[in-house]
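Shape is hard to put into words, and the shape of a protein is harder than most. The fold becomes a row of whole numbers, each drawn from a learned catalogue of backbone shapes. The outcome of that step, for a single protein, is printed below.
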Amino acid sequence: MTLKGGRCGWGPLPQLMKVIFHEDFLECYTSDPAAVNGRLDPALALAQEHYSLVTPSPCTEEPLLRVHTPTHIAHVRADRSVYPIALLAAGAAIEASRLAMAGEPAFALCRPPGHHASPDSCWGFCYFNNVAVAVKDLLAREVVQKVLIVDFDLHYGDGTANTFANMPAVTYLHLQGRNRQVFLEDLKSSIQDEKADLVAVSAGFDRHIKDWGGLLTTEDYGEIGHILGDFARARCGGRIFTALEGGYNAISLGDAFLAFCRGVEKGLTP
């Protein structure tokens, strides 16, 4: 499982990435595939081996209200098993975004996912839109003016698209591709003319060849990270953060997570 040096063909890299994680993310908080026991265990083991872990605090109501309506927040709050972990996941994304703004790329290894959560609704194992909450927090504090959100999950992040519809300060890009080569080329071509102060990534690893999508290899996720890290270095001072979305084969999720993180580090390294 461990991706050291030659397995991705890169050799030693500096350990730039911070991983945001709380032990409560291991809890089985409901019956959906994102919440099953053991889903994050391989990724966590790799994160502990390779990176510094940062413990997040739960999101407070103020950042939530910048994205979600009071009615939606009350709806999630009514589920006592989900609400605390959903707050913690949003808080992890906020912590990752603030580290990124301080020059430290960060990955929120959190659950529940968030990109199917719209301002007043949610589905697809999501409750609060973690990436959207983090991005709107930065915009509200006026530390960024333009953000590029890249979503490489198998599924379209309708919640993120709905949140930022008609909002020029944010570009939402969901990646498509009929095969591996087209997927990577589409990523390169889609971002080549973009300008941003920050890159936010919705990282769904369910396109892996051993997961639901059956398309991308572990090495492809490394290349995705490399492309995005290089973009962040060249266009926005290296500011990039990521939050976990999908990925339901625990082993391939862990391998792809590490490959992606190492790819980002490679891209950020001149």
